[in-house]
Amino acid sequence: MRRQHGLPKHSLPIACLAAAALLAACGTERVAGRAAPAERVLVLAPTAPSAADRVVDLCGLLTAQDVATIGLDYPGESRDIGGGALMCTWNRSRQGGLSASTVERLDQLNLTGEKSYPARVGRFEAVKVEAPQREAGGCAVAIVVSEDLVVLLLASLTVTSTDTAAACVRVDKAAELVAPKLP
Questions:
Q1: Helix, coil or strand: residue 89
Q2: How far is 32 from 88, CA to CA, in rounded Å?
Q3: What is the pTM of this model?
Q4: CA pair distance 132, 58, nearest whole angstrom
Q5: Rounded CA gap, 164 and 143, in Å?
Q6: How many separate domains does the chain show?
Q7: Taking residues 67-94, what's their average pLDDT?
Q8: Cα gap 12→62, rounded to integer Å
Q9: More confident position, 16 or 95
């Protein structure tokens, strides 16, 4: 397997992408009698529970003040994303959202996108991915906390937005707020 920036060229089967996942409402919202697209949160998450899920209280990573700073609603909603793996999502109607999940290793994630590069978040090494899976309007930061803990933050705007830069501003702010709270 060829590596670029320390990442495997191909991800493990445990990583999944639901780039257009409609997590805010898991479907549609009714607006004046018509179905309107729900907000989306990009998901690059494991399909099996991780020991890392027990280490980090995902919804506790952001306070009400933190969430207000990034323009979303508090509290976050904890979700089982399959096989007992957990994720926390924060959303705001018609303004997109943010998700946080954990995996044990960076190579469990499919971190390909328009741009993928090493970054630093506080005291941690990280990988930033603009437009994960080439889906414009999303941005991800995978924070490597330890050998067996990676916290993945994904931000998006609305379902129809292609503003990757704005999603990256959201995920960067969230990462700066989350990093001091990580073990």
A1: strand
A2: 30
A3: 0.74
A4: 21
A5: 19
A6: 1
A7: 91
A8: 29
A9: 95
